[in-house]
Design brief:
This protein has two domains: 3-178, NAD(P)-binding Rossmann-like Domain (Rossmann fold); 182-323, Orthogonal Bundle (N-(1-d-carboxylethyl)-l-norvaline Dehydrogenase, domain 2). It has 15 helices and eight strands. The chain has helices at 11-20, 34-43, 65-69, 84-91, 116-124, 139-143, 157-167, 180-202, 207-227, 238-249, 254-263, 268-273, 280-295, 300-310, 315-323, and strands at residues 3-7, 26-30, 59-62, 74-77, 101-103, 130-134, 148-153, 172-177.
Length: 332
Amino acid sequence: MNKLAIIGGGGWGTALACVLAQRFGTVSLWMHETDLAATVERTRVNQIFLAGITIPGNLRVTSSLETALHGADIVVSVMPSHVVRVVYTQLLPHLRPGTPLVSATKGLEAGTLERVSEVIRSVVGPAFPVAVLTGPTFAREVAEGKPTAVVAASHDFDLAQNLQQLFSGPSFRVYAGNDPVGAEIGGALKNVIAIGAGICDGLELGHNALAALITRGLAELTRLAVAAGGRPETMAGLAGLGDLVLTCTGDLSRNRQVGLKLARGSKLGEILGSTPMVAEGVKTTSVAIHLATRLNVELPIARQMHAVLNEGKSPADAIRELMSRALRPEAV
């Protein structure tokens, strides 16, 4: 395969384009913003979303979906979850039937409560193989060539294995998986838990509290994933525990930063308005709560984060209520 198209030119999309450019003859990177696409193509740096990283010479940047998708052997989509349906509706006329579609978006769609791969499937129909690419990744570290491991998951395991071979390189190791349900639930809900982790650190609650939150957060990821049709062992891997630990502890985590700033007194609107980056956990929290209600799953941490984000509850009160919940066996 010679040409890769990446749809979405934020930090993660740009980083993927950079690391995968060494695996393909040509990579097209589509950006929604016409001016930004032209600037990045000319300067070879995405100064807004990934400053300081020079993009490879075989990477072409465009704001035209038709141009980006022309001749593409594989399409990777990297965009906020709330625009996936709209963007795929726009790009569908430019896709060749049978082209593999890979979602690197972490989130759930409001209203339908669908995983991103389900949204894609509902738009494109059965003529396209679909996979997800997820795991513990900070865009900047990927673009800098620091060692990274991810999982490509699909119900079509042959597709996952093909992506593993095509995408793996010296600094980017891909594992193949056949549980996209668990992989996507883990990738979505870990962002919610990371907001709680930021709150713990912002309130200076210590390492014990953070370790407890990550561990009980993993229990919530697992309950929701299994109820949605995923497998518990997936949550012990890169898409679950790996991504959860990274997002809850790393300073580059946008969702953790949201929690930190909330705990220190900033208003949510101010936090979100101060950066062009998207913190998926903010939107995902409400969707996850609705999905948990539909599936009759208890998500105490996510519910407290929902109350902080949407109901005006103070971060300190949220932690206090988590600690005062009725006692129970750990495994339940």
